[in-house]
Structures are given as structure tokens and as C-alpha cells.
């Protein structure tokens, strides 16, 4: 595979998955294949790390994960509906261990992003006075990822609980009580100074959120951190740019070393990294990582198999044209 150039940043990867852009879907396919090849390549590095952990610990959990990673994404079968120039991923086997596997992370994040963008548009059409903002809350770095995760989650829950109580009239108003809908994700980076935990929240608000007041509330909730950031989304850029921040969390694991990624994935595997409140609650995200087919249209099947060291390669023998419908 010829990809010595720097891989695209996470936000661009995700944006390209879900936005229409200037290129048609068939024109976008080669880049998608390249992205998926890189993701699979990274997944194989993670597989090596997991296998090593299994040999060191004998823990059957690692052997289960390595089996899953091993069989994930060995082939990808797309359908190109050439009369409408749409491309859909029709079949693949996915491990669905998205914290370990960058390929599943891309597919899942793009499904989540599409579902929440759809919901966002529906909410805004019924409540046009709401203003979308991006809120980032940070807690202090630390070496113990689980302890930092718990601390961050509990602190966010304090703000969300106060919001609920204020809205039912039983407590004073807070900055969060201006939020009508929010969707947020917990993200963890590590650049050598311990785990840096933070939360990105896309929120639809009824009034301006005061950064200083929020900072004071956050300090009270966390006891050790006051760093918050609030900025409007959707005014200068498309709202999707703000939402990308929220849904890139699992893709960001690929910025860690493979050892750190496995450590983080093991620690956070069964934990919730995405949450929603208010009007965003109940947004349905499809479980399946493949795409819905387009019924009744002729297509060309494009079957790619993964070859180690090369990437996804089209298999002409398995790539066929459908009978004319
Ligand atoms: Zn996978």
C-alpha cells in the first residue's frame, strides 16, 4: 500500500464518511478503501499487542478479543448502484470491538453521527430558537485511567442531575439547566503525562452559557478542575463540524501507542463512553455496521479482500454485475 504520507486526522476521516461533498460516491470509494486499509493495518498491530498480552497473562479474555480481531474485516463487499451512483457496504464481518478495532470504530462513529445529525435537524425544525454549542470539560491528568474515568463521569453526572432538578423546579437554576438536548462523549488522550480525560458535549441551549459561571460549577463538582470551554457551533461552520468532535472518541484511540490503546480498551470496554440528555435521549443508532441496501436497483458487486502488507484489493472473480432488474 502506498501511504507513506501522513494519515488524515480523525475529524476528516469521519467527515468524509458521512458528508456528501463534491465527489460522487463511486469517486469517493478509492479513498474510503484506503482509509479502511489503514484502519485494518492498525487493527493488526492491536491484534499483535492483544496476543502478546494473552501469552503473558493467560487470560482467556485476550484470546477472545484476538479471535474477534483476527476475523474482522477480512473482506468487504460493496454494491455500486450505478444508475444512481450510490455505493453501499453490503457485506463484511465485523468484530464490533470498536475500542480495539479502528475499522469498527469508523463504521460505528459514522452510524452514530448520521443518526444524531438526523435527530438534530428534527429537533431544530421544531425548536428553531435553540442554539447549538460545544462544551468541553476537563479533569486533571492522572496515571490511573479507571479512577480518572470514574471521577469524570461522576462529575458530569453531578451537573446533569442539578440540571434535572432545576428544570423540575426543586433546585436553583444552573448553567446546564439552559440545555434542552445534549449528546456527549468521554475521551482520553495520553501524551506521556498520564491520562488526559475530557468530555465533549454538543448541546442545544435556550440561552447563552456563561463560561465563568460554568467553570465555578465544574470546580465545585470535580473538586480539582475548573477548565471548561464553551463555543458556538453551526454559526461559522456547518453544525456537523461540532458533532464530529463528539463522535470521534473511539477513533481517537488510534492516536495512542498500541500498548496504551489496548490498556484503555480493556479498562473501558464495558463502560459507556457516549451519553445523551433531554431531546437527544432515545436517538436510535443502527446496531449493524453494514449499510441498508437500495432495493430494486441494478448494481455492480465490488468484492475486496484484505491482503496483509498491501491492503484491500479488488477480487475480480467475485466482483459481478447483478441481473438487470
Ligand atoms: Zn473490527
Word description of this protein:
Belongs to the Gram-positive plasmids replication protein type 1 family. Pfam families: Rep_1 (PF01446). One of its GO terms (molecular function) is DNA binding. Residues 1-5 have low confidence and may be disordered. The strands form two sheets. A five-stranded antiparallel β-sheet has the order 6-3-5-4-7, sandwiched between helices. The two termini are 37 Å apart. It has 325 residues and is α+β, with helices and mostly antiparallel strands. Helix 2 (25-57) runs antiparallel to helix 3 (60-71). It has one domain. Helices cover 41% and strands 21% of the residues. Residues 72-73, 94-95, 97, 101, 103-104 line the site of zinc ion (ZN).
User: What is the radius of gyration?
Assistant: 21 Å
Number of domains: 1
Task: Spell out which ligands are present.
Answer: zinc ion
List low-confidence stretches: 1-5
How many beta-strand segments? 9
Give the terminus-to-terminus CA distance.
37 Å
**Fraction of residues in H or I helices:** 40-55%
Provide mean pLDDT, rounded. 91
Work out the helix count.
8
